[in-house]
Specification:
Layout (H helix, E strand, L loop, with lengths): L5 H20 L19 E6 L7 E2 L2 E5 L2 E7 L4 E7 L9 E5 L4 E6 L3 E6 L9 E7 L1
């Protein structure tokens, strides 16, 4: 039996790292959606699921709400963000550009009527887009 070389160790480590990175990109978050506590939003708060079941979708894809409604975005798989692509001229929603992992959530209260569109930047090519329509 021969001694392990530095090259052997690097090869093994690179393989593990690549596998872990690929699993995250493929939605390998594991577990069922009901294990994420953030899904239990306060009454009157709407929830948008980010990557449910490891799929490249927002659920619902389009949500209609009244002004003053808070929306909670809940990550159910990893490697996603919520990047705003359009919104009413006088709105100030910045979304959440940072890539996050399963279990993360953020909220925003929509005060300006109109249509807000957003994408998951890493998965936009796979069709991961969403919209919120705010009505008075």
């Amino acid at each position: 039996m021969r001694d392990r070389t530095r090259r052997d160790v690097l090869r093994a480590t690179a393989g593990i790292g690549a596998t872990a990175a690929l699993a995250g990109c493929l939605g390998g978050g594991g577990g069922s959606d009901d294990e994420v506590d953030a899904l239990d939003a306060p009454e009157g708060t709407e929830v948008v699921e980010v990557g449910p079941d490891g799929n490249y979708v927002f659920d619902p894809e389009e949500l209609t709400i009244s002004t003053g409604t808070t929306v909670r975005f809940v990550w159910l798989s990893g490697t996603h963000n919520v990047a705003v692509t359009s919104q009413p001229a006088d709105a100030d929603w910045s979304g959440h550009d940072t890539i996050e992992e399963r279990g993360f959530y953020f909220e925003h209260t929509f005060e300006v009527p109109g249509r807000y569109e957003y994408v998951c930047t890493p998965h936009q090519a796979q069709g991961m887009t969403g919209a919120i329509v705010v009505e008075e």
